[in-house]
Specification:
Layout (H helix, E strand, L loop, with lengths): L4 H106 L5 H16 L1 E10 L4 E8 L9 E2 L3 H9 L3 E2 L16 E7 L2 E11 L8 H42 L5
Antiparallel strand pairs: 1-2, 1-6, 2-3, 4-5, 5-6
Helix pairs in contact: 1-2, 1-4, 2-4
Length: 273
């Protein structure tokens, strides 16, 4: 039995619609795949700038932290240097205080006696302990002869120290000018026989020089002089000069008093018949 033309036509039309629907579905699927791929590309493009922005943000943060760390480290080193400077100054001040305390005690000892020999002994102890001298001499001006005569010495016999003339040589010039002398090189020591000390300090009361302390060599552990030493020289020179001057006046007055008393005793004695 043959199909009716109308039915065949309808079947063909239905199949054609079905094929078109299939093709349309496939086309939709292809477009959907393209869209999904495009979306993925766009998402990647959006994510990449976001990642780059995050990286830049972290880099900026790291750079700022590094700058802060460097600033802190710089401040730390600065404070460390300041602490070292303060520690050094503290040690220096402590040394000055110790030296001044020692000089105060020494000055008290100097002015606690009017015995001339005792004063010389105290000066010698001060020069050894505070200055660190090993070989030195104390010389006084003889106003009658204008000679600068050694009256006490340490490290050498007194008779080995020569006299000096006022205004001549190192010692004589120091006595005349009233200014301290310091040799350029103190390591090799001075020459006692020639009267050439490495250091010579005038003993003076105000501007009146009465003698000098001549140092010819230092103790082994004493490698040089500090600012404290120079201050000690100045203070010692004044105190030692005052103590020596007072002791000499006292000794002279004692001698005169003894002479006068002896003379008075003679006058009191009755003449023999």
């Amino acid at each position: 039995m043959e199909k009716e033309p109308g039915i065949t036509k309808k079947v063909d039309e239905f199949l054609e619609i079905f094929r078109k629907g299939e093709e349309f579905t496939k086309e939709i699927l292809r477009e959907n795949e393209k869209l999904r791929f495009r979306i993925a590309q766009l998402e990647g493009a959006v994510q990449k700038p976001a990642e780059e922005e995050s990286v830049r943000m972290y880099e900026d943060r790291i750079r700022k932290l590094e700058e802060e760390i460097n600033a802190v480290m710089e401040r730390y080193h600065k404070v460390e240097e300041e602490n070292k400077d303060f520690a050094s100054k503290y040690v220096e001040v402590e040394e000055i205080n110790n030296a001044l305390a020692n000089l105060y005690v020494a000055s008290y000892q100097l002015h606690s006696t009017l015995d001339f020999d005792e004063v010389l002994r105290i000066i010698i102890e001060i020069v050894i302990n505070l200055i660190g001298a090993e070989v030195f001499a104390i010389l006084l001006i003889d106003e009658k002869t204008n000679d600068i005569v050694p009256v006490s010495a340490e490290g050498i016999p007194l008779e080995m120290v020569p006299k000096a003339r006022f205004g001549e040589g190192i010692i004589g010039s120091v006595a005349k000018e009233g200014e301290s002398y310091f040799a350029a090189d103190i390591s090799s020591g001075g020459d006692v026989a020639k009267g050439e000390p490495i250091v010579c300090i005038p003993l003076k009361i105000k501007e009146h020089v009465i003698g000098a302390i001549a140092i010819f060599s230092l103790l082994t552990q004493k490698e040089g002089f500090t600012n404290v030493d120079y201050e000690l020289f100045n203070l010692l020179a004044g105190h030692a000069a005052t103590a020596i001057f007072s002791a000499r006046l006292y000794t002279q007055s004692e001698r005169k008093l003894t002479t006068i008393q002896s003379f008075l005793e003679l006058l009191k004695e009755k003449p023999k018949r």
